[in-house]
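Batch 3, record 17
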Amino acid sequence: MIKLKRHLAEHWVPPLIGIALFLFLWSMLAQGGGTLPGPLKTWDSAVVLFSDPFYQKTPNDQGIGWNILNSLGRVGIGFGLAALIGIPLGFMIGRFGFLDKMTSPIVSMLRPVSPLAWLPIGLLVFQAANPAAIWVIFISSIWPMIINTAMGVRQLPQDYLNVARVLNLSEWKVFTKILFPATLPYMLTGIRLAIGTAWLVIVAAEMLTGGVGIGFWVWDEWNNLNVEHIIIAIFVVGIIGLLLEMLLIQIAKRFSY
Amino acid sequence: MKKYVQIENVQMSFETKQGTFVALKDIDLKIDPGEFITLIGHSGCGKSTLLNLIAGLLMPTDGVMLCADREIAGPGPDRGVVFQNHSLLPWLTCFENVHLAVERVFGASESKAQLAQRANDALELVHLSHAAQKLPHEISGGMKQRVGIARALSMQPKVLLMDEPFGALDALTRAHLQDELMKIVAATKSTVVMVTHDVDEAVLLSDRIVMMTNGPAATIGEILTVDLPKPRNRLALANDAHYHSLRGAVLEFLYQKQAKKAA
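Prediction for the assembled complex:
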């Protein structure tokens, strides 16, 4: 009983106080006039919105559920393609010094570029909004995967390589039994960073490209001056980002030694 | 009798930014089958380098190295290595760590059941059958080192090479593992080359102690034959006059003839 109380006090009370304080400040701001809706008004609006998440009226007027799924779909495709190319590339860059030196100036130069700067290139090449948005996700999530995978390979302890040499392991065994498992935690860090960035970028990209998606939905609601919906969208984006992050942390925990 | 390991006129130098660094020179050593050799010397004397040369992890700049009349051209399953820090792969169980070695050496000629049997036998030899399915981080440092020994022995090497295998362990665990190693070596009739910095360990385990001079350009200073009868018992030896005279000879070499100047 005392244990339970302590657990509650240590793990639940501080976050709850934080959330309460946040809601209080928010309602104070909303009270002070202006057009910012308060927590209660937003909550009511959210209840209505989530009571029918999958309606489809017109192509531009669909339920919040469709918007979220469309955004997740774009992130999934862009991110998946980036993993498919970025992770093997990272392995090769980490393993072969020549390739590392060859690619390092390009990677260092392109990595800090805002992913949205790539959007016009995507529109130009693909002549369509949807592939262009996926392209932006691809570009933004490939760098952390290349860099972290390569770093994992480079940091492979010499001891393990000595074991491989002494046991005379084949290249395939070295990869499956040593290189891959040793690099996996780094790779997962890269994946986590990549998916975080991808989820950040999708909102901005969709604002520009339009179509069904949480980002465009925010922009649309701004044009409708429906501020409650914008606030709801902020929470939705935040919570989904948090869930993605937690999922990947759980996966990473499974593979740490 | 044919020599198991032959090292003739071996020299080893490394290229550094300050120029060529000669680590070892004029190394001549012949090791008989079943012999237990320890390499002892102050740190930096190149004893680990010599072991890595025999292992094939390093190539000598000059000289000839043979193992069972074949030139040492790289690491091979005829020389099992036990590393100082166990070097088990943390994502594999003890069994899988040993199996990885077995598979490589005998995989082409034996069935899966036979391979598993070999891995289990090796773990049995070091009394770790009960920990076969555990991951390295779930067992103690001494146990990890025993898995490392099992892994090396499972390949049925001609020579067992050990680089300060007990250096990172506490004194009690070390003594326990030394006793076990003596039994294993007696049972398997292994030829062993072991690097150590522990004088008692060297005298207790060895047939011959190879004492190395200080680097750079280290070489073999003296070779001391330990003619104590086997099996040896550490308690009985504690009061053995001959044991103490041998121990004294190694100490004299290390702390008088090759006294390290204060850094």
